Amino acid sequence: MRTKTSVGLVGIIIASINLLILWSWWRGEGPFVKPAEITFMLPMQGHGHVHGHGPSVGPAQTTITPIPNSKHFTVSAFKDHRLEGAIRVISILCRDRLEKLYCVLCAKTNLSSTTEGALHRCVSSEAKFDFAYATASVLCQRPLSLQATHVSMTTKPTDMYNLKFLQIENQEVKTSFKYEFTLCISNIFGKLNNALQFVQTMELNKIIGVQRVVIYNTSCGPEMEKALRYYRKEGSGGLANGTFILEVVPGPIDKFLKPSDSWRPDYSPGDIHYYGQVATLNDCMYRYMYQSKYLLLNDMDEIIVSYKHANLGDLMSSLQREHSEASVFRIRNYVFPNTVRWSDSRFPLPEWKKVSGVNFLEHVYREPENEDSDISAKLIVDPRGVGQTLVHETQKQFGGVVNVPSDEGRLIHVRHPKKGDDQLIVDKKLWEFRRR
Predict the structure, then answer these.
(1) E strands in 141-210
(2) Are 98 and 140 in contact (CB under 8 A)?
(3) What is the pTM of this model?
(4) For residues 47 and 405, what is the distance between their CA atoms, to the nearest angstrom?
(5) DSSP characters over 39-71
(6) What is the pLDDT of residues 261-309, one digit of tens each?
(7) β-pairing, 23-26 with 292-297?
(8) Which among 19, 211, 212, 379 is least surrounded, fewest beta carbons within 10 Å?
């Protein structure tokens, strides 16, 4: 079957991408790569392997699509109106197999031409990582008169009949949004069965003003799956008229790579950082760019809480009044050790005892603020003002960056301790929400 037949499109635009590897230094601490048309979001050195895959035909049916005759993958594609309508393809590339790639753009037009891409810098803010695979943005330039609808990538421009095409999203700019706050939870994996904490995360986020949660699911346990089904039903209108939405995006990265479940390969060997966390965060940011005013980028064991205002809406209104040009708001991370519990018997409730998982409300002791609180901050972003994001900071943004004062907002993070128990501070902020 020919690709142009299966996709049902007429014109094919081939934009060549030259991969030029230049070494330099990021903040004097480590190397970064500077390839043409490839803008890495998490470039790291190393070696890895890919589980077997072969070429396929027609539109992509999954969130990860192999590029034929290569060790690279595409994730999703979006029109970037801030870059004169360039097509941004979020990709996962094998760093030691960088080669010339070609964007194949399809549209309902007979126009056809070849364009060369400009040089885009690849910056690493975490150069100490050493994974074989890195998340990247491939920018496909297009003639301004071409309204491309689908894109694929290939290493062989003469062979365009063995490709899978991604639909290009964000075709139109929107200035009004269905949601004010969307939470992007980047990955659940390892048959995670932390159902109690997930339910509490969902309910607490409802209270503070989040209208939609997007979660990328590689694998989870039976109780977690039951909880996901419940909230999907609620979001469909079956329980609460669709006032709170859960969207579950499949994340089958383990079908193609051996992912690490850590941020460092020496802690957990693998091909890519945290099950492709950076790829899913960027996919979420672009996927919902014109649907939500703000995006929260944090994990399931974390809650962003306003300490000065009643909810996130009031917090962001106050911050935007003070910082009208800002598009990134960094929320400091406060660790609440999961090894220390409040002795009061009010938690857990009897009905929670048989539910597996961590109980947020039992953990009200936090470690003192330290330099890591800022380094490991999580983000609230205006996605129209961000080009690329990492986990704890944005890499490219079109507005200012604000470090939110801790008396206004904090990230409550229930996890294994980083410090000793001798300096713990009681912080019962989450208990304030129990009557809402």
Answers:
(1) 150-154, 164-169, 179-188
(2) no
(3) 0.83
(4) 41
(5) EESS-------B-------EE--SS-EEPTTSS
(6) 888 888 889 999 889 999 999 999 999 999 999 999 999 999 999 999 9
(7) unpaired
(8) 19
> Whole-angstrom distance between the N-terminal and C-terminal Cα of the chain?
57
CA 94, CA 40: separation in Å to the nearest integer? 11
Beta bridge partners of 250: 217
Q: Helix (H, G, I), strand (E, B), or coil: what is residue 133?
A: strand
Q: 26-32: long-range contacts at Cβ-Cβ below 8 A with a sequence spacing of 24 or more?
A: 26/123, 26/124, 26/125, 26/127, 29/127, 29/128, 30/124, 30/127, 30/128, 31/124, 31/127, 32/121, 32/122, 32/123, 32/124, 32/127
- State the Cα angle at 142 between 162 and 174, rounded to 5°: 105
Q: Name residues of the chain where pLDDT drops below 70.
A: 1-62, 108-129, 143-145, 237-242, 345-346, 348, 435-436
Q: Which of 280, 264, 297, 282 is nearest to 39 (CA)?
A: 282
Helix/strand number for the chain, H first, E second: 6, 27
The percent of residues in the chain predicted with pLDDT above 90, rounded, is 48
**What is the distance between the alpha carbons of residues 18 and 119, in angstroms, rounded to a whole number?**
9
d(CA 304, CA 289): 20
C-alpha triplet 268, 271, 275: angle, nearest 5°: 75
